[in-house]
Amino acid sequence: MTERRLRLQQARASPRIEGHQPSAEFLADMLALITGQIDAEEVQRRIIERAWKADRRAMNTTVER
Fold first, then answer.
1. Total structural domains in the chain?
2. What string of H, E and C letters represents the secondary structure of the chain?
3. Contact at 8 Å (CB) between 28 and 46?
4. What's the predicted TM-score (pTM) here?
């Protein structure tokens, strides 16, 4: 688990340096991954699902204007 946590910290460093902040959902997914509650495929599925939902919300906002 320590190795997974270290890899996650390293992976988060670059976006943080560029000023990007991960969402609470993403951080929760990463913790679940580190503790073995979910696997990488589930993390990927959740990220893609959130992106699709955000796109749909953006499209609905654009269409309504």
1. 1
2. CHHHHHHHHHHHHHHHHCCCCCCHHHHHHHHHHHCCCCCHHHHHHHHHHHHHHHHHHHHHHHHHC
3. no
4. 0.72
Q: Is the distance from CB of 5 to CB of 34 less than 8 angstroms?
A: yes
∠ CA(63), CA(64), CA(65), 5° rounding? 95
Residue 17's domain comprises: 2-64
List all residues 6 or more positions away from 40 whose beta carbon is below 8 Å from its beta carbon.
33
Count, residues in the chain = 65
Residue 39 makes CB contacts below 8 A (sequence gap 6+) with 33
Residue 4 and residue 29 in contact, taking contact as beta carbons nearer than 8 Å = no
User: What is the per-residue pLDDT across 27-63, written as a single tens digit (0 to 9) for each?
Assistant: 899 999 999 999 999 999 999 999 999 999 999 876 6
